[in-house]
Amino acid sequence: MTAAPKTTGYSSPLPDTRPHLGHAMASEWTKLKSVRSTVGTLASLVVVVIGVGFLFITQTRSDNYVAMPFTAPALFGLLVGQLSVMTLGVLMMSSEYGTGLIRTTFTAAPDRYRVLTAKYLVFGITTFLATAGSVYLVGLATMLVHGDAAAGPHPGVAWLYALAGSFYVTLLGVLAVAVGALVRHAAGAIAVMLGVVTLPPLIGGILTVWEASAGAGRVLLGYNAPVALMQVFGMPDAGANPASLAGLPGNVTHMAVILLVTAAAVAGSYVMTGRRDL
Fold this sequence. Notes:
Shape: globular
Helix content: over 70%
Largest sheet: none
Structural class: mainly alpha
Distance between the termini: 59 Å
């Protein structure tokens, strides 16, 4: 009587690889491009920046660009388009909490910090490329239409301003992702971000009415997102009270402020995401 052959365990034909950040980023990119709301929001950013920029180009003359950079028309589109960036940032997190997909995400990828890092990276890279690309197209169109300006800021400096402005808007979006992770509700997080952008100039204007609060009002008029974006973009005399901190130029000051605020919010999102139940 022969012995029964030994059976071997099941061997999967699929490669057994250890999950890493690249896998999480691929997953987040699939989510981003597969959801209509996020794709539509990102598309609206491009359309608004390019559309408003081209409209502004038709309403300006070549001598207008003696004092302002060729990329200035894109600024006016970004002042509106930044709302799309912040909305997209909020949806990057809150949409999963709203639909319950976040449970599936954290079940498939238990390392919550890796998932959150992937969201920040995918959102930041995608938003910066879309923003900078739109600004570049508007700036290039301005140079083609009004390239006979006598002087004005050097084109190389203008492109640096444009990249800085695109980075500033991207940081606003990253801040929105962090707020979405903290609040976990789309409506509430969007309301917070709209307040961050719209309320400081409004409150600052109100406070300047009274002498006792005029100082605080001028600070709010000098430190707010619209004025910051204009100064970062290299617009001359942007804001009623150009901001300065420790002798730094206004655009550097605003960039430092948004970096500190965003870093604090991102750190808070990591802490809360790791501690909270779903």
